[in-house]
DNA sequence: ACTCAAACTTGAACACGTTCAAAACAATCA
DNA sequence: TGATTGTTTTGAACGTGTTCAAGTTTGAGT
């Protein structure tokens, strides 16, 4: 049987996520969550040290769903462009219910001190799960990606995914049509761009890009 | 003689910016600003509708300074890589005093509703000024940038600058060494990458990138 | 059944950004 | 000067996220 405490925790989280979706971030006050869940404000804080941690709960749930949906969407898809499209489109799909609230989410997430910060320690698990999606997209593709790129590419694509998410937040076109268009346009371009790596002159530039990435990354 | 009201406005702004630099964003409460400036809280709000607008004051001031310093640094510099470096390094230079406070600034700025949002309406002037720096960096360079790129490049570089600024905010290395390294490494790479535009196979990819950028931009 | 420590829950209180009715001041005209 | 109108200033009050001392409940050991 679920411990009573776990029940309360879930209840608070469920109510919070529901309210985030339905009335937005700012209107979802801690008092409102507590009241709706039938607990005291202090009790909500017993399980979640801050409103940010409730956002993190949302972040984790969305990432988990993305992993599931993306795996399905990647199944049987061969070429890199299509695989990339699948990974990105599903990412947007799972975020869709939260679009209106996206900007508050990003404002929360971008703060290095926030537990939700995708680069931070507290989201290591979620980030790894997300990264794994792109690793799978790269490794499962045929024709295969040039070996020298294979190591760093997933991380770069994940970074690009963060950029797409940022674009999506600002995208006010109906149904975020522009973001879809961006994905559809950019994915094949990335794939084609990578295939240029064989051209000698280009290859050198690629090497230097990777060198720079590694250099900047290591020295922390 | 300066109108009394203008004096009060300046006083509040000066005190706020000084406190932002010296004690950080969160500790600089509206009450503290008012007290330090010797006015009432309500009076500060008479001149600045929100704390965000005080941040905007900072944003504008930093951009103005960047324009001045960058113009000086670009003077006499020929090749694109060096010009790009100059534009970026000076950008980081003027932000330096605010580094500790950078993340709060970004968290404020990234919200579409914020007056400080660099993509938003309220910062059109500051954005244009910033864009002009990169336009000048591109147009003044010799050897000249390929004509077909010249139109869109400044905007893309400005976007990259936003990315560098974001990187800088997260950069905890001493003196933000890693950001400097990133600039020094990336600027020549961009210049070299652009020169590849002559290669036929690469040229097509470039065309498509530009097409995508325009397509996504227009459809808003 | 009783004890007692740990887990859980409460709600009043704090500092914050922000608002606003009212007061003080300034400038203009009769 | 006095009246009137517009500008500037005040500080108490509101709703927010968050804290915490104090209470209540639970469960293992006797």
Q: Give me the secondary-structure category of chain A.
A: mainly alpha
Q: Note the total helix count of chain A.
A: 11
Question: For this entry, what is the oligomeric state of its chains?
Answer: homodimer
Helix content of chain A: over 70%
Listing every helix as H and every strand as E from the N terminus to the C terminus, the arrangement of chain A reads: HHHHHHHHHHH
Radius of gyration of chain A: 20 Å
Q: Based on CA inertia axes, which overall geometry of chain A fits?
A: elongated
Largest β-sheet summary of chain A: none
What is the overall pLDDT average of chain A?
Answer: 92
Q: Which chain pair has the greatest contact?
A: A-B, 36 and 36 residues
Beta-sheet strand percentage of chain A?
under 5%
Distance separating the two termini of chain A: 46 Å
Point out poorly predicted stretches of chain A. none
User: How many extended strands of chain A?
Assistant: 0
Give a brief description.
By secondary structure, chain A is mostly helical. The first copy, chain A, is 72% helix and 0% strand. In chain A, helix 7 packs across helix 9.
């Amino acid at each position: 049987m679920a411990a009573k405490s776990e029940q309360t925790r879930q209840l608070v989280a469920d109510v919070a996520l529901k309210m985030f979706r339905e009335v937005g971030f700012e209107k979802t006050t801690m008092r409102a969550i507590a009241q709706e869940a039938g607990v005291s404000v202090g009790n909500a804080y017993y399980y979640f040290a801050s409103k940010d941690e409730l956002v993190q709960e949302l972040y984790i749930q969305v990432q988990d769903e993305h992993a599931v949906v993306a795996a399905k969407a990647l199944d049987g898809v061969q070429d890199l462009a299509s695989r990339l499209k699948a990974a990105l489109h599903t990412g947007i799909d799972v975020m869709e219910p939260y679009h209106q609230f996206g900007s508050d989410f990003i404002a929360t997430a971008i703060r290095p001190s926030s537990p939700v910060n995708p680069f931070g320690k507290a989201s290591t698990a979620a980030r790894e799960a997300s990264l794994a999606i792109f690793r799978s997209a790269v490794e499962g593709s045929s024709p295969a990606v040039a070996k020298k790129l294979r190591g760093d590419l997933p991380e770069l694509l994940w970074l690009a995914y963060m950029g797409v998410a940022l674009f999506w937040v600002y995208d006010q076109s109906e149904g975020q049509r522009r973001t879809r268009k961006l994905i559809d346009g950019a994915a094949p371009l990335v794939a084609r761009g990578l295939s240029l790596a064989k051209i000698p002159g280009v290859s050198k530039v690629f090497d230097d890009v990777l060198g720079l990435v590694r250099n900047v990354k290591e020295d922390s």
